[in-house]
Amino acid sequence: MISRIPLLLILLLPFWLLKANIVILNGLSHSYKVENGKVYKGKISIENISSQPQSVKLFLQDFTYQSDRSIHYTTTNTNVKTNSNWIKLNTNLISLKAKEKTEVFYEITIPAKTEDAGSYWSVVIVEPVENIKPNNEKQGISITSVVRYAIQIITDVDAERAKPDLKFEEVKIEKEATKQILKIAISNKGNLYCKPTATIEIYNKKNGQKLGTFSSLAMGLLPQTSKSFHIDISKMPPDHYNAVLIATDEEENAFAMNVELEIKND
Predict the structure, then answer these.
(1) How far apart are CA 167 and CA 172, in angstroms?
(2) Using an 8 Å Cβ cutoff, are 263 and 243 in contact?
(3) Are strands 149-157 and 29-34 parallel, antiparallel or unpaired?
(4) Are the beta carbons of 96 and 102 closer than 8 angstroms?
(5) pLDDT at residue 142 above 70?
(6) Which domains can be identified in the chain, with CATH numbers?
(7) DSSP code per residue over the chain
(8) 89, 131, 166, 242: which is deepest, by most CB within 10 A?
(9) How confident is the model at residue 144 (pLDDT cuts 50, 70, 90)?
(10) Is 131's pLDDT higher than 70?
(11) Quick one: average pLDDT of 62-82?
(12) 139: CB partners within 8 A, 6+ apart
């Protein structure tokens, strides 16, 4: 079964807006460069920020995401590059007192032999367990909505024999409030996780003079997934330009494409 949830809903919205009872203290992405036959250890740090006791369950799922900001959660072993069978949590259920912190530990046992070099991944879902509360005013019950966290566990096997392969899928300009935002959909067709930054160099169409360079934030990109990288180009006046798009990862691998850019008044 596949559930589709906007990526920003779980990973990026502020805790106060989501009214979460728990927070993850050590990040939503854990990445390891690994070797066959070895065991690696990690932990998930959790805090109950509410004034009430809170039970929390943890379980593994597979997932992918795309540049339309959707994320697809599936049962384990539905992704051919899953590492869910390699991961063992030391518990699947914890109980936290008010304002209490704790750590859940996990082990990753890498098989003696893997079929392909590159990135394997899954997510640990961390979900508060909400009690079903009787409703004294109405018949039936009321169920309180909860916030789930998806923590990526990424293992790069024989990373020196794998590489990302970034492709520009779509380029468009959208006005957001008073800003002109360049949105660049980039996919990773390779077999290795990377964390690229998108950059645009803008040139005068008549004389070739460089007029500006603008960059996005860096974002992680798993194999066979895509994301939309946003660049604020509001400083450029309306006109037609030549431009070069460049995607550069943390290993300084660069992928480039020439484009014609039209910035409108609207």
Answers:
(1) 15
(2) no
(3) parallel
(4) yes
(5) no
(6) 3-159 (2.60.40.10), 166-263 (2.60.40.10)
(7) --EEEEHHHHHTS-HHHHT-SEEESS-SEEEEEE-TT-EEEEEEEEEE-SSS-EEEEEEEEEEEE-TTSEEEEE-TT-STTB-GGGEEES-SEEEE-TT-EEEEEEEEE--S--SSSEEEEEEEEEEEEPPPEE-SSSSSEE------EEEEEEEEETGGG----EEEEEEEEEEETTEEEEEEEEEE-SSS-B--EEEEEEEETTT--EEEEEE-----B-TT-EEEEEEE-TTSPSEEEEEEEEEE-TT--EEEEEEEEEE---
(8) 166
(9) low
(10) no
(11) 95
(12) none
Residues 6+ apart with CB under 8 A from 137: none
Encoded tokens for 198: 């998108």
d(CA 37, CA 110): 5
pTM over 0.90: no
CB 51 within 8 A of CB 23: no
Task: Kindly state the tokens that stand for 75.
Answer: 């049962």
Higher-scoring residue by pLDDT: 251, 215? 215
Residue found under tokens 């049962």: 75
Joined tokens for residue 214: 């603008």
CA 259: distance to chain centroid? 27
How far apart CA 183 and CA 170 sit, in angstroms, is 8
- 124 touches 151 (CB < 8 A): yes
Name residue 61's beta-bridge partners: 123
Amino acid, res. 107: E
